[in-house]
Design a protein that fits this description.
single chain, alpha+beta, Beta-Lactamase, Heat Shock Protein 90, five-stranded mixed beta sheet, rod-shaped
Length: 465
């Protein structure tokens, strides 16, 4: 059964709809057949019962009394009524007041529940064949004869069954024709419904491989859902491609100057014979290597943040855990061992929906900026402020210059290595994380004359107790 379901799911929509309609028609055909046969049998019974009753009344009305005895002359009209069913056998029985059979077939037996011989109908047998009987009573009140004579007229049921089958057959013919029309109509409707999808497929096939612009949403409402999802996917893919192109371009540009400087210092070192100058060259090489390493770390960090901002699944994150993880990793002890870092978190959760690794990268870069460009003491923490989940870094410095703030959020500028290795790139990374999760990066002076870099996000709904 599961294999059959999988095969059906892999077939075309047209075939699946046609098959579904066919199954419904088969089920409906069975139901209609039963209903039509029941209706046909009831209609045939009603029609032929009237004929039997009419024949019985004709015979009963023809009974007379002569010399104290009933005289029976069977009217031709009674049997002419029953001649409408030429293939059926006819039987009759006339019972006198004393219960004896005056004429007819004594083999016609009365059912046990009709001992009182009330007028009406009953089913029985006529020489082994199923038959239907009508019984009519006539009260005789003569001086010489007083009592009730009962006339029983019966007929086999071949014509009745034939009529019921004929009604059922005609109903099935109508159902078959209408069912075929429904299947054809369903196929036409499905084909017309799939026309927008075929247009979309043709449009995608004809597109340039590098064209990731949104598709036209002027389509039926049901198809627009798919188009919007496809446009969203292409927008995310376009951002990823742009990020990759920018990373490659910026990496090539940013690494060209420091690598050339390292090469020049290495050439100077190989040509220099004075030991004191060689030591100075080695110090410059070490300084440039360290700066280059920090630049590479930040560039890779930004690439990671941009990638995860589009692809990572958003989960409930407690910003206190982010601050605690960054503090316990102890990067500040390596970057600036002489500067104290204080962790400031409360007891209440500070939760939001985001990607934890991206938040850690942002906080690390804010902390790195504070350690390199701020003044002690440095504090990191998380808190809830007016429905906002906030994670922040504070120091006693003045903060970045106006040019760095103006360029915040843009891709790497074409400035020198020294400026790029400073706070601008770290703030750009934090800004990218804020934008990715519908937040903002706020740089401000606090009431205590301290500089604070904070990431503000919408707080997650409080969990039910």
């Amino acid at each position: 059964m599961p294999d059959l379901i999988r095969r059906l799911e892999m077939t075309s929509l047209t075939a699946r709809v046609a098959l579904g309609v066919a199954v419904l028609l088969v089920i409906g055909g069975v139901i209609v057949s039963i209903a039509a046969f029941a209706y046909g049998r009831e209609a045939a019974r009603s029609a032929f019962d009237r004929l039997l009753l009419g024949a019985a009344h004709d015979i009963a009305s023809a009974i007379t009394v002569q010399d104290g005895k009933p005289v029976i002359e069977l009217p031709v009209s009674a049997f002419e009524l029953l001649a409408f069913a030429p293939d059926d056998r006819i039987g009759y029985r006339i019972i006198g007041p004393d219960g004896t059979t005056l004429t007819g077939y004594e083999e016609i037996a009365l059912p046990e529940n009709r001992r009182d011989l009330r007028d009406g109908y009953f089913d029985g047998a006529f020489f082994g064949e199923p038959a239907r009987y009508a019984i009519v009573s006539r009260r005789l009140a003569e001086r010489t004869l007083n009592g009730t004579i009962r006339v029983i007229v019966g007929q086999t049921v071949l014509a009745r069954n034939s009529m019921a089958y004929d009604i059922t057959r005609k109903a099935l013919y109508v159902l078959a024709v209408s069912g075929l029309a429904m299947i054809l109509l369903a196929v036409v409707v499905v084909r017309s419904v799939l026309t927008p999808l075929e247009r979309i497929a043709g449009s995608l096939s004809a597109r340039d491989p590098h064209d990731l612009t949104p598709m036209d949403t002027d389509v039926p409402r049901e198809t627009a859902v798919m188009i919007n999802a496809l446009n969203g996917f292409m927008a995310r893919l376009d951002r990823q491609m742009n990020s990759m192109r920018h990373l490659i371009s910026d990496t090539a540009h940013q690494l060209r100057t420091p690598v050339a400087a390292l090469r020049a210092q290495a050439d100077l070192f190989s040509d220099e014979v004075d030991l004191s100058r060689k030591e100075k060259i080695v110090e410059r090489i070490q300084t440039r290597s360290a700066g280059l390493g920090r630049l590479l770390d930040q560039m890779l960090s930004q690439a990671l943040v941009i990638h995860r901002g589009d692809s990572a699944r958003r989960e409930r994150v407690d910003l206190r855990d982010i601050a605690l993880d960054v503090f316990e990793e102890g990067d500040h002890a390596v970057l600036n061992p002489e500067m104290d870092v204080v962790l400031d978190i409360g007891e209440n959760p500070v939760e939001m929906l985001a990607d934890a690794p991206s938040l850690k990268e942002a906080l690390k870069n804010l902390l790195s900026n504070a350690l390199k460009h701020g003044r002690a003491p440095v504090r990191i923490g998380a808190s809830l402020n007016d429905g906002k989940a906030v994670i922040w870094v504070e120091d006693a410095g003045e903060g970045p210059d106006r040019q760095t703030l103006d360029e915040l959020g843009s891709r790497f500028n074409r400035g020198g290595l020294a400026r790029q290795a400073s706070s601008g790139l770290g703030l750009a990374i934090a800004h990218s994380v804020a934008v990715s999760f519908d937040g903002e990066l706020v740089l401000e002076r606090t009431d205590r004359e301290r500089f604070r870099a904070a990431l503000l996000f919408e707080a997650a709904p409080v969990r039910a107790a």
